[in-house]
Sequence to fold (228 residues):
Amino acid sequence: MHGFWNLVESLDKYYDPTAPPISRDPFELVLYENIAYLVSDDRREKAFRELKKRVGTRPEDLLLVPVELLAQIAAIGGMFPELRARRLQEAARLARDEHAGDLGRVLSMDRVNARKALKKFPVIGEPGAEKILLFTGASPSLALESNGVRVLVRFGFAREQKSYSATYRALQKALAGEIGSKCEPLIKAHLLLKRHGQEVCRRSEPRCTACPVAKICAFPEKQQPAKT
Ligand code: SF4
Fold:
């Protein structure tokens, strides 16, 4: 089987330069996860930028405004805006009370404690905490979202397990020796795998015949163009 970086390099050659993460600030990344639900990246980004413009992204900014205003902005990001508005303020209170308003403090903790601290925030689970530590440059890890998980499983790096979290762990274990110790290449890998999963290696009807890495993919059902 071809290696992880071989796959990433092939995707990098195929796709136009991928936009960098929206922020490198841990609290902003928490807000970014909470501002939208089940919408496209474009809408999530729009809601986040609106929050930044109309309210600000420091914990004290979010606690100064009425929750109704946050709900109005969160409505750009899809369903249940009131719930997400309350979560934004809950995140702000947690950052204020447990980190003196500066979530940047978690970045100097050891990895286990940093993950634990981040997982106290609304909707931040293990993958979300790892992504925040990766995007802020604090800790290199194979932080994946669902598209990346699907691509790597189809590619053959690990088998799908009974639960998503077990599959996630199986991939991390399988690739632990390959990922290296630098954040920037891993951020690029995260973004490229996500994009490949969204545009080509889609959940249903993957576009295997148009896939730039089809020749080195192990997906048993992939449909290659007929040989002439
Ligand atoms: S060949 Fe198909 S399954 Fe394999 S990476 Fe490409 S789109 Fe995904």
